[in-house]
Design brief:
- The chain starts with a helix and ends in a 7-residue tail after the last strand.
- The protein has two domains: 38 residues; 147 residues, Rieske Iron-sulfur Protein (3-layer Sandwich).
- Strands 1-9-8 form a three-stranded antiparallel sheet, with no helix packed on it. A three-stranded antiparallel sheet has the order 2-3-4, with no helix packed on it.
- Helices cover 23% and strands 20% of the residues.
- The relative contact order is 0.16.
- The longest helix is centred in the N-terminal third of the chain and has 33 residues.
- The protein is an alpha+beta fold.
Length: 199
């Protein structure tokens, strides 16, 4: 075998070895940069669905959970509350929930929920993002007396919403409260963040 053939084999080996080492080096350099594009465990958990057990929820009781850094209200409505929702349309800005971006299609009804007894609403005013207070008492003098059938009052600028999260006419908030995606995993468990599977 000639010297030239041996040199050519050495040269190919050195070129191949250098290419492999270079590729590994590029991988080590690129990994920290590429890994910053992946969501952190904290970010993943912040957007993850939230489960809430409603088996002990009593009529009128409201519980708050955090989903995607937003307060979500889950509360139980009694028969009187459900009946009152059907009498308030003339006082509401969007009684039929025609603004479709405010709720999933399965919650476009008078109750804005899957089950009329259980409400799931994001607790952020659609005016400037304050969190309204829960005022379920009927006939509250400071909120309209006999016209008030219970609901939510935003102390920042005076917006009012009924117990389906529908906005009253003539208040600063332009739209109804938002209904998040959710579904019933069972009769006693709600999963917020994922809507029901299409049947």
């Amino acid at each position: 075998m000639s010297e030239q053939a041996i040199d050519l084999k050495k040269r190919r080996f050195i070129t191949s070895a250098t290419s492999v080492v270079g590729a590994v080096g590029v991988g080590f350099v690129a990994w920290p940069f590429l890994s910053t594009w992946m969501p952190s465990a904290r970010a993943k958990s912040a957007s993850a669905p939230v489960d809430i057990n409603i088996s002990k929820l009593e009529n009128g009781q409201l519980v708050r959970v955090l989903w995607r850094k937003k307060p979500v209200w889950v509360f139980k409505r009694d028969k009187t509350t459900i009946a009152n929702l059907n009498t308030m349309n003339s006082m509401l800005s969007d009684p039929n929930s025609d603004e479709t971006s405010q709720q999933p299609t399965y919650a476009k009804n008078a109750y804005r929920s899957i089950n009329p007894n259980i409400a799931v609403i994001i607790g952020i005013c659609t005016h400037l993002g304050c969190s309204p207070t829960y005022r379920p008492e009927i006939g509250a003098a400071d909120l309209g007396g006999d016209l008030w059938k219970g609901g939510f009052y935003c102390p920042c600028h005076g917006s009012k919403f009924d117990l389906a999260g529908r906005v009253f006419s003539g208040v600063p908030a332009p739209t109804n409260l938002i209904i998040p995606p959710y579904h019933f995993v069972s009769d006693s468990l709600i999963r917020i963040g994922i809507g029901p599977k299409a049947s």
